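Limitations
The structure tokens in this dataset are predictions for the assembled complex, not deposited experimental models. Users should treat interface geometry with appropriate caution, especially where small molecules or nucleic acid strands are included. An illustrative entry is reproduced here so readers can see what is and is not provided.
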Amino acid sequence: MLVLVEQSLNGLQFGLLLFLLAAGLTLVFGIMDFVNLAHGSLYMMGAYFAATFVAWTNSFVLGILLALGATLLLGIALEFIALRHLYGRDHLDQVLATFGLILFFNDAVRLIWGPAGLSLPLPAWLTVPVQIVPGVFYPAYRLSIIVVALAVAALLYIVVMRTRIGMLIRAGASNREMIGALGINIKLLFTLVFGLGAALAGLAGLMQAPILTVQIGMGENILILAFVIIVIGGIGSIRGAFMAAIFVGMIDTLGRAFLPDLLRTVLSSAAASTAAPALSSMLIYLLMAIVLVVRPEGLFPAAKR
Amino acid sequence: MKSYINARNVIVALVALGLTLLPAYSALTGNIFILTLFTRIVIFALAAASLNLIMGYGGMMSFGHAAYLGIGGYAVGVLAHEGIGSGFIQWPVALALSALYALVIGALSLRTRGVYFIMITLAFAQMAYYIASGLSRYGGDDGLTIYKRSTFGGLIDLSNRVQFYYLCLACLFGGVYLIWRIVNSRFGMVVQGVRSNEQRMQAIGFHANRYRLVCFVISGTICGLAGALLANNTDFISPAGMYWTRSGELMVMVVFGGMGSLFGPVLGTIVFLLLEEVLSQFTEYWALIMGPLLLLIVLFARGGIMGLLGRLSRG
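Predicted assembly:
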């Protein structure tokens, strides 16, 4: 029972992290109709920036804030230099161009930081276990990820649904030409949205960094998960991305935690321990395949254009 | 009458001739490296040509083509590991498994269009990748060494570099010829018609998805053959060979050369892999140049090398 609570929290935490990544992706996709494979590279850069700035400033919070700003600027620069020329192009062109960017970022990181991974040590106040309900302890850092991610999700909701800029974003998603014709600087809006998406990806990366090592290619697997999420949730839909992210995070974590034991009841112990990791990795893709076959437009499709 | 002597056809003929004479050059100069490099290039060219069949002619942007390389390779590797060394068994199994996989994922994926299709083929390829990682009997993540290449009852010796090269080249030329015949057949016309206007083809009475699916399976089967060749070439199989970046590279090769042109993917593969080779000799960080180059090609050189040559031919 205790394990179940803990693993569910882990699943929630992973799902929220995935949401941060998927939210940027789905915003960019929904509004600019742009497939950005390099989103995972921004996630990686967020983690590398955080590891570097925390080491420089000797302050966890300051380093993380600097890293967040740096990822935001990097995203804006990337959009300004390269990606804005790809709007309105074929999806295949976008996939290929951003695939090129992945290659570039991976080698750039290898050149600057070296091939070995970095680690981002946590300050002491984040490593203590917190008692959430009597008898159940949970690491403070993972708990703080949940809190921060939920806060960001709420903030995002308020910005998109309740502010003028959010109104423009939603208008842009439903009819780009029209809001351009109404005198809105659509280019600036796109750049801002892209920067926001980059910052969200960077935030996800730097929050994940202390749990896993910071390494080259860390953004690639999780990027595909984020794509799976926006496809399950319905491309362009933030609500869909949120639901699907939690769902996928739970399945992935709980699958990894409990599948081995579950399989052991039907298979031999050796066979189960080898089949379980592969099976739990596959579960998500299986889910996506089922969703696409049953509802090709995703579970919570954004309003039709 | 249309003249067949133009820049594009001359280059294609020269490349084909060059590929055929390469072993002679290698023997004369004693440069074995170039032969191994081009064996790899020829195999990937076959894979790229098969991807071009569905991408260029069928309009199906598969982001999971590396899976077939893996399936073809694993069929050879696993059978060799189990003591079945005959290519007469290994290779048909490789082709059959690739075709079966293509049939299943094609039937599911073809229900979707556009970017969803890109994503679902990617997802299935990742599933195949994880299945391969889970095969602990066959090395799991670390992969499996193939100690003995496929045997063909003394007909051909795959361990002989020149013979193996010519086998790969024959497969490539055979594959390209097959694709040429398919594209110009009634079947190929329907597939291309579906690409440009699905509704109209449906209205005429063609079952669009059935044609698409058959095309998808043919493409996957040819790529499975490339996988069997690749496993024999590297004497090694591992899940890493079917990772999604490999699928991306195959797409890049097709687009480099020119999507929807018969010989384009072959040129694209040659240019891509040679560029990778040259850049990696020049610097360890070759992707620093390759990545932005890719971006520039997408931005400014639509139609790839073949498109460029075509424009040159027209003057």
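Some entries come with short summary sentences. For this one: The radius of gyration of chain B is 19 Å.
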